[in-house]
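Session log. Operator J.P. requested a structure for one protein chain; no other inputs attached. Running the standard single-chain path with token output.
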Amino acid sequence: MKYELTVIVPIYNEEENLERVEKELVEYLKIATKKTKYLLVNDGSSDKSQELIEAICNRNNDFTYVQFQKNCGLSAAIKAGFDYCDTELVGYIDADLQTSPADFNLLLEHIEDHELVTGVRSNRQDSFVKNISSTIANGIRRAFTHDGMDDTGCPLKVIKTSYAKKIPMFKGLHRFLPAMILLQNGSIKQIPVQHFPRIAGTAKYGLWNRLLGPLIDCFAYLWMKKKYINYQVSKFKIINE
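Structure written below.
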């Protein structure tokens, strides 16, 4: 059966989480409503993550990986996933597993009628500081993008790959995936999903990253929106060699 969905899993120093990541991702394959495979993107980890990633891929035929030479950031990891994706649909989940792979099925129920479906973390299991900073950051982004999304930072998304590959990713743009689909005249939808506390490992972003970073990125987004080129081909001819 042909694969229909590639799920990108960005990984940066998550050796404490990877055993659980493998277990939960394998379990999802048993209930997935689309034939699914995984692309583990090692964002230049300095711990034993790569060793564990290769072991996971050797044990499971539905797992593949990409390893960066050095740490490049979450946006680069997601962009690499888009570049290496060869299925009609591409998904994204964080290696901290604060969202559940099982909820991909909720998003997939709506992807036929939309180009991006994103989760909205209900009953968030984060600290007060993290929750309030995320709320402020989301408010800032909505004011700039008018995308109507309540939780653009939710690390659970499904996108039609043809649209994902047209996103000109740069550092920080992972926060603007719904807005980037709107620039392509695509349709977006948000669906409530489960949220869990982090069990192992440590968060890679602090208060500074969640507030100042998104504000700066908003100005970059506005510049890019002004310069963005969106075209649709009506007819073409190629030379077969």
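Operator note: The CA atoms of residues 47 and 150 lie 34 Å apart.
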